[in-house]
Amino acid sequence: MRSSLTRRDLLAAGSGLAAAAALPALSGCSSLASADSDPDTLVVHTQLGTTAPGSPTYLAAVDGFREENPGVQVKNLVNGDDLGQVYETSRLARKEADVVMVNLYDKTLAWTDVGATVDVGPYLDEWGLRGRVLPAALADWTDDEGRLRAFPYFATNWPVAYNRALLDRAGVDEIPTTGDALIAAARRLRAKGLAPVTVGGNDWTGQKLMAQIIQTFLTEEEARHVYATGDFGGRGALRGIEYFTHLRDAGVFADKAQGLTSDSMTTQFNTGEAAIQSAMSSALAKVPEQVARHTEVGGWPLADGAAHEAPTVIRAQTLIGFWVSPNGVRKIEQVEKFLRFMYRPDTVARFVTESGRDMALRTDAVSTDFPLVGAAQRLGSEVSQVLLPDVYVPPAAAQPLITATSTSFTRGTSAARVRAALESAYRSA
């Protein structure tokens, strides 16, 4: 494996010229300078630490680690959606953090291949932690070369939330399980001045929901091929696109969905303005109690001839993992202490009970204070699982796919134009 990330590698991995151009300006800033060379200071680059779900639990866990390991200091570097680019920039300066907490998506797909992070499989075995990880998580985090990109940690369950009180107000007697029933429900909801399905058609939430709907007529193997290659011309993919546009033009999605974001989506659902949303478990944990007590979770309604036996949900094990950098290898004893602590059953249980997180690790903990998260975890044969496409989409196509999503949620855009927009996202990949 190559030991460092070159500019050419970085650009090939999809980080773009912006990261390289920003290097001289950023190399002296606190986010890079704080990648401490002190062998007793472990630097963790994370998205947890502000308002991200699980942040209070994470910070409390770090405090607990410090108390038990007084000889090891932990310094957190916190970023949001820009974490990937900030990390890549710091790696170019050889000032990257020792451990990175981020999901497997877009830029991060290439990190292990280009030497920005290391294969952690040998450490997982050496430290006796493999048995703590769910088999599905090990599979999802392992690349085509057999390298384990990171220590799996957070998973996600992505069902559909239905506000039963709003459906009742509109005269919808049952949770829709078919496309026709969903269209009928949308008409009744609109007649009462309520938005049917709210979705962030201008960001990743819309991209995921559209991918879920397109998979209505795809087997898992077929879906993997479609999202790895960008070939949306097969019969199943075309039928899925047509199903999506049929639902869209029938008024299933909230007005001007192509301009909505994940924040506006959750606001509409959590305030009772919309009756339905496709929500990952971290969003379900934030549904206020007065709405949650009237909410049921299920799957996305199917159409005739679907490849699945029940309404669909997305489940994935790749929401957050602990990546080890080349700098981290130099502090591997401290990394081991930290990872052992974070993998402990009592630490893992806290994320479930205190934050309502789904975990990629084995745990008996139950999200009793987060009823919708718990209900989603209990969904069984009444739903079918489809792929989260993130680990199959080439990094260079990830952001263009979101742009294509906004076009696709614009009412009146033909199925042919939707297909063209999706396939064009792959041309630079």
From TrEMBL:
Keywords: Signal. It comes from the Bacteria. Residues 1-35 form the signal peptide. The keyword Signal applies. Transmembrane segments: none annotated. It holds the Pfam family SBP_bac_1. InterPro entries: Bact_solute-bd_prot1 (IPR050490), SBP (IPR006059), TAT_signal (IPR006311). The keyword Nucleotidyltransferase does not apply. This is ABC transporter substrate-binding protein.
